[in-house]
Amino acid sequence: MASDPMPVDTTNLEPPAIPDQNQNPETKTTPQRPEPKYGGHSRFELELEFVQALANPEYVTYLASRKLLVNPAFIAYLDYLQYWSRPPYLKYLTFPTASLKMLELLQVEQFRKDAINPGLAQALIVEGMKSAVEWHRE
User: Fold this and answer.
1) Tell me, what's the pLDDT at 10?
2) 10, 77 Cβ separation under 8 angstroms
3) Between vectors from CA 100 to CA 9 and to CA 55, what angle results, nearest 5°?
4) Does residue 63 carry a pLDDT above 80?
5) Are 74 and 46 in contact (CB under 8 A)?
């Protein structure tokens, strides 16, 4: 099994279509070109899950340990995912502050280099807990 990640060309990639939640699945018409499924999930669902997973600093450390954060194709993919910070996609994020802040930090080369340090993940976890406590006090 190869350890190199598969290259991803995001140069002309558009954000995925937002699923229409108001349609009844039984009456849904089939589009001209149905969206391909990846393991039974749409690209929208996969990218949403990935962006939400970025809220976990330990997951980001895992990505760094797998050398993904130095892969130019993966860095381009992180840049492409910036569309989640804008409506209408923003409303689908469960933890938008944490997810989008990490996505923003991952745009910085030095942060990507430092992300392999488990101490950084722990510090981010502590900061997140402090922020949550302060937010609840307000």
Assistant:
1) 59
2) yes
3) 100
4) yes
5) no
The type of residue at 118 is P
User: Model confidence over 1-60: pLDDT tens digits?
Assistant: 344 544 555 566 889 888 875 444 454 444 556 677 888 899 999 999 999 999 999 999
What length is written for the chain? 138
Query: For 43-137, CATH number?
Result: 1.10.10.1340
For 62, the token pair is 């895992």
Is residue 114 within 8 A of residue 60, CB to CB? The reply is: no
Domain ranges in the chain? 43-137
Tokens of 95: 């933890």
Note if the pTM is more than 0.70.
yes
Q: Of 58, 43, 47, 41, whose CA–CA distance to 102 is shortest?
A: 58
CA atoms within 13 A on the CB side of 124: 22
How would you class 4 by CB atoms within 10 Å of its CB: exposed for 0-12, middle for 13-18, buried for 19 or more?
A: exposed
Structure-block tokens of residue 46: 């996969």
CA 34 to mean position of chain CA atoms? 24
